From TrEMBL:
EC identifiers of the protein: 1.1.1.25
Keywords, comma-separated and alphabetical: Amino-acid biosynthesis, Aromatic amino acid biosynthesis, NADP, Oxidoreductase
UniProt family annotation: Belongs to the shikimate dehydrogenase family.
Quaternary assembly: Homodimer.
Sites where the protein binds shikimate: 15-17, 65, 90, 105, 225, 254
MF term (GO), any: NADP binding
Lineage: Bacteria, Pseudomonadati, Pseudomonadota, Betaproteobacteria, Burkholderiales
Gene Ontology CC terms: cytosol
Cleaved signal peptide residues: none
Binding site for NADP(+): 81, 130-134, 223, 247
Annotated organism of origin: Caballeronia zhejiangensis
SDH C-terminal domain ranges (all copies): 247-275
Reactions catalysed according to its record: shikimate + NADP(+) = 3-dehydroshikimate + NADPH + H(+)
UniProt keyword Kinase present: no
Name this polypeptide is given: Shikimate dehydrogenase (NADP(+))
Length: 281
């Protein structure tokens, strides 16, 4: 029988993970199946019961999406440093009766920016909007990419401060790492790269970011994907930003990291990113 994998979330109908991993399995010749499971939100034990059932049925690994990333963290036996720092898990491996947990969202994002979009962060001024789960997962890989300055802005500024404080302990790369509110941004000048890691675009909203943060010739990255030109990307484009991108590359790259972790072979991602990309204008 093929090795079994799945993504679990609620709702799960929108997921592209079975398509992505099916494509990877075919490309690399791996004998595996990959399905989608809608985990119950109620009762509180519903998520962990679903995972345990999947393991009992021979499951080898799972991706985890909203709203279960924290519950997956809580039920894991071993967690990578990235998972520990973000407090969230997006991939699990089941081995010898243990649940091993990872978070590949941040490495997927950094790889998309640096490798696919050819925008190395070393020495740059980088601004991240948002301090939710995705920003938490991204921060450690961002610090490792050695920007000269990394600023995290959030509506609830205390969340951004707490996150920066936590990551600062692992910041051996030496760049500046600070937190602020949106009202402070106008005084901070232009950034080479601005990343929208808020969920504002999911409801067609714009985080209250001033156009003065963008550099003509710089880059803007929207974590949401498949939404075309979001209000954030439109603001960036109108401010003269040269490179704009959405999160489809991040989605495929984090999947490729999980696939390599499970199967020991890293699939090619370029063709799939092209296939899944929704034009931005
Ligand atoms: P969370 O719910 O954990 O965090 C939401 C964040 O958005 C918080 O910082 C919140 O601020 C902020 N926010 C929400 N609405 C607004 C608004 N109107 N103005 C300003 N800030 C706002 O979400 P995630 O971190 O999990 O997801 C963030 C985004 O990343 C989503 O668009 C999601 O789809 C995308 N994503 C993409 C992935 C990919 O592979 N491409 C993977 C994971 C996520 P506050 O704390 O002040 O409330």
């Amino acid at each position: 029988m093929s090795d079994r994998y799945a993504v679990i979330g609620n709702p799960i109908g929108h997921t592209k993970s079975p398509l992505i991993h099916g494509f990877f399995a075919q490309e690399t010749g791996q004998d595996m199946s990959y399905g989608a499971i809608e985990g119950p939100v109620e009762p509180a034990s519903g998520f962990s019961d679903s995972v345990k059932r999947f393991i009992a049925a021979g499951g080898r690994g799972m991706n985890v999406t909203a709203p279960f990333k924290l519950a997956a963290f809580a039920m894991s036996d071993e967690r990578s440093e990235r998972a520990q720092l973000s407090g969230a898990v997006n991939a699990m491996k089941f081995e010898g009766g243990r649940i091993i947990a990872e978070n590949f969202d941040g490495v997927g994002l950094v790889r998309d920016i640096e490798v696919n979009l050819h925008q190395p962060m070393v020495g740059k001024r980088v601004l991240i909007l948002g301090a939710g789960g995705a920003a938490r997962g991204a921060l450690l890989p961002f610090v490792a990419a050695r920007p000269a300055e990394l600023v995290v802005a959030n509506r609830h500024v205390d969340k951004a401060r707490a996150l920066v404080e936590q990551v600062a302990r692992s910041n051996t790369a030496g760049g500046s790492l600070t937190a602020c509110g949106y009202a402070d941004l106008a005084a901070l000048g232009r950034f080479d790269l601005v990343i929208n890691a808020t969920s504002a675009s999911l409801t067609g909203q714009l985080p209250p970011v001033p156009a003065s943060v963008f550099s003509a010739g710089g880059s803007a990255y929207e974590l949401a994907y498949g939404k075309g030109l979001t209000p954030f990307l439109r603001l960036a484009r109108d401010a003269g930003v040269e490179s704009i991108a959405d999160g489809v590359g991040m989605l495929v790259e984090q999947a490729a990291e999980a696939f390599a972790w499970w199967r020991g072979v890293r699939p090619e991602t370029r063709a799939l990113i092209e296939r899944l990309t929704v034009p931005l204008d």
